[in-house]
Amino acid sequence: MALFKEKKKGLLGGLFAAFSGVDEDFLDELEERLILADAGVETAEMAVDALRQEKKLKGADVQAKLVDILTAEMEKAGSPELCLATKPAVVVMVGVNGVGKTTTIGKLSKQFHDQGKKVLLCAADTFRAAASEQLGIWAQRTGADIVRHGEGGDPGAVVFDACSAAKARGSDIIIVDTAGRLHNKQNLMNELTKLTKIIGRELPGADCEILLVLDATTGQNGLIQAEQFAKAAGVTGIVLTKLDGTAKGGVVFSIAQRLGVPVKFAGVGEGAEDLRPFDAREFAEAMLQ
Ligand SMILES: Nc1nc2c(ncn2[C@@H]2O[C@H](COP(=O)(O)OP(=O)(O)O)[C@@H](O)[C@H]2O)c(=O)[nH]1
Ligand SMILES: [Mg+2]
Predict the structure, then answer these.
(1) What pLDDT, on the 0 to 100 scale, is given for residue 183?
(2) Rounded Cα gap, residues 218 and 247, in angstroms
């Protein structure tokens, strides 16, 4: 599928040639492969337990069943659709440093712009000067407006100004960039809570998506970190980046189980076009070949 730029080696490759059906040896091998692909122990166990009830299946039917099992698990967490019906609506990008927040904002900005929407970028990552410069370049490239203050400024004040500017200019969508690191984790979480409160106060009733960006190459380790984030920031969706790189991709299967929020987009490169809406079934089919 289009999620991967280059076709990766399928998770099930050669498995059906080596085993005649769903027996315990097959299930052991499958569990190991799922874990090696970053699906996580819990998800691998869940999938294997569910398949154990299907001993009569063979070959492609096993594959189809496994796709069903993993798709259902991913869909449990909710729909991948963005809910941004109000004018303006808001997207807040959160996540640790380097995962791809700012880049994803650029990609989203392009998508919204191509849909004819008026986009306003808000540089609320004031922790580093380079962050707002990077966002400025994306604004220029994608025809978006930008609101920014100087380095070390109050992110809340930038968000406040962005809300006012969006109302004054008739923007359709505000996309807020946030810092991935502050002096400590509690500061960071408090800051994110503050930012969403300001949005709620300045734009009452506005639809707001809070997207947690996760780097797929960090696999299960990244998930542990993200769990805390997801709880504190009231995250409504996940953007999984760097699926074009060395990521094994299986981490997608356990996100719903671990974080309880749906994956909404997949990042597959550094360019403006490299963001795909996430489709759980397509993804499972591509992985399980
Ligand atoms: N290969 C690849 N690189 C990405 C992707 N998304 C972001 N990056 C790169 O990851 C690095 C960090 O991205 P950035 O947006 O600055 O992360 P931030 O600190 O979370 O804002 C940059 O070099 C990006 O070009 C992706 O989907 N694939
Ligand atoms: Mg950034």
Answers:
(1) 65
(2) 8
**Nearest-CA residue for atom 1 of ligand 1:** 269
pLDDT value at position 173?
98
Question: Which residues, at least 6 apart from 127, have a Cβ–Cβ distance to it below 8 Å?
Answer: 152, 179, 181, 182
Which of 270, 276, 278 maximizes ligand 1 atoms within 8 Å of its Cβ, making it the mutation to test the pocket?
A: 270
Ligand nearest 107 Cα, by number? 1
pLDDT at 1: 42
Phi, psi values for residue 261, rounded to 5°: -130, 145
Q: What is the structure's pLDDT at 196?
A: 93
Give residue ranges with CB within 6 A of ligand 1: 95, 97-103, 180, 213, 241-242, 244-245, 267-270, 274
HEC sequence for 39-61: CCHHHHHHHHHHHHCCCCCCCHH
Q: In the block, which residue shows the tokens 């808000």?
A: 122
Ligand 2 geometric centre to CA of 133 (Å): 10
Taken in order of first residue, the domains within the chain and their CATH numbers are 15-75 (1.20.120), 89-278 (3.40.50.300)
Q: What is the pTM of this model?
A: 0.93
* Ligand 1 atom closest to the CA of 241, numbered from 1: 27
pLDDT profile of the chain (289 residues), mean per 10: 54 79 90 93 95 88 93 94 97 94 98 98 92 96 96 94 98 96 78 94 97 93 82 89 88 90 96 96 90
From the CA of 268, the nearest ligand is 1
Cα-to-centroid distance, 237 and ligand 1 (Å): 18
Note the pLDDT of residue 224: 81
